[in-house]
Design goal:
alpha+beta; Rieske Iron-sulfur Protein; 36% helix; metal-binding; 4-stranded antiparallel beta sheet; 9 helices
């Protein structure tokens, strides 16, 4: 009996093996008492943890990288101005792209290197163990989340390291400046209201098919049809794309009895043929879908819908004003012509404008 007792391991020892417990579905569960938790390895202090001078030096290096990012971002803006793109000069394109790209890339790279250096030398690097648990939106969970953010702030030193924090904010603000300058430069050089208020349509300009430029006869426009129209003078314009973006028109023919035009616009159509700007008044997408049964025009970008029978009033979607109407008539040969330009600005309505 004594020999038998000596061979029996003590209950709860690290080498004890128990029968695996069974889950409700019959799947074996690995027992938890077959190994010991080794714990965390000994924590090794960094030089910045033991030497205040090294800590200050690392802080200056991180903030220096953030300040360097500011310099590179400003340099990108300067390069965009110093090396402008000239029409027909491929060398100017290369120089502009090279220095602009270098400035933006180095600005972002400096932020990245600074953030990594910060985390490796100054943020807390102690190993921790977190028990997994179900995430619930209870008050306890929210309180715990707030504690985690507070702890993260304490460990990173974000709240108390003013030099790093302020230089990081400056770097992030400066980094967006090249994008702001570039995209602003894509816009018109003058008041957008002035640019969008006038197109190349004028009295007597023939309506022609897009893109062929063939003139359109009123007799060829049948009920329920829709045509994409450009002014005849567009093909002779030096700024073809820019002018087309403002002057493109949709031409449709309805039964005149279906049209409910406001006072003063009764003569803007010809025998039920109406012409409206193709440029959506939301953000300028091309309105290209016409439903001949309901007489609705649909913008495919954000689903703004316009009712042609009601002077293209908005009946659905984010657009907040009707499509501008182009007054039309016919010439002596029966071809459709414009009576004048649009009487209001075309395109998006977010520009500051007086109506």
């Amino acid at each position: 009996m004594a020999d038998h007792d000596d061979e029996t391991p003590a209950t709860g020892s690290a080498v004890e093996k128990s029968e695996p417990r069974q889950a409700s579905a019959g799947t074996a569960v690995v027992p938890t008492d077959t190994f010991e938790n080794p714990g965390h390895p000994p924590h090794k202090l960094r030089i910045t943890d033991t030497d205040p001078k090294e800590e200050k030096s690392a802080e200056r290096q991180v903030s220096g990288l953030f300040f360097l990012s500011i310099i590179f971002s400003c340099a990108a803006v300067a390069a965009y101005i110093v090396f402008p793109i000239k029409t027909g000069d491929i060398a100017s394109v290369r120089l502009n792209t090279l220095f602009l790209g270098l400035g933006i890339a180095l600005g972002l790279l400096s932020i990245g290197i600074g953030a990594v250096h910060w985390s490796k030398t100054l943020m807390s690097d102690r190993e921790i163990t977190e028990m997994r648990h179900l995430t619930k939106g209870s008050e306890v969970t929210r309180t715990k989340a707030a504690e985690v953010f507070t702890l993260g702030n304490q460990e990173s030193g974000f709240g108390r390291r003013a030099l790093i924090r302020n230089s990081l904010f400056g770097a992030l603000i400066a980094f967006v400046l090249p994008g702001v300058v570039i995209f602003r430069d894509l816009g018109p050089k003058v008041d957008p209201n002035v640019v969008l208020k006038h197109t190349i349509w004028k009295k007597g300009t023939h309506l022609t098919l897009d893109p062929s430029g063939i003139r359109v006869k009123a007799a060829d426009v049948t009920l329920g049809s829709a045509f994409h129209i450009i002014p005849e003078t567009l093909l002779d314009s030096d700024d073809l794309l820019e002018e087309k973006a403002k002057a493109a028109v949709l031409l449709m023919r309805l039964d005149p009895s279906d049209l409910h035009e406001p006072a003063g616009r009764e003569n803007w159509q010809y025998n039920g043929i109406v012409a409206y700007s193709k440029i959506c008044t939301h953000v300028g997408c091309p309105v290209a879908l016409y439903e001949q049964q309901t007489h609705h025009l649909l913008c495919p970008c954000h689903q703004s819908t316009f009712d042609v029978t009601q002077n293209c009033e908005v009946i659905f979607g984010p657009a907040n004003r009707p499509l501008p109407q182009l007054p039309i008539t016919v010439d002596a040969d029966g071809y459709l012509i414009a009576q004048s330009d649009f009487h209001e600005p075309v395109g998006p309505s977010f520009w500051e404008r007086q109506r």
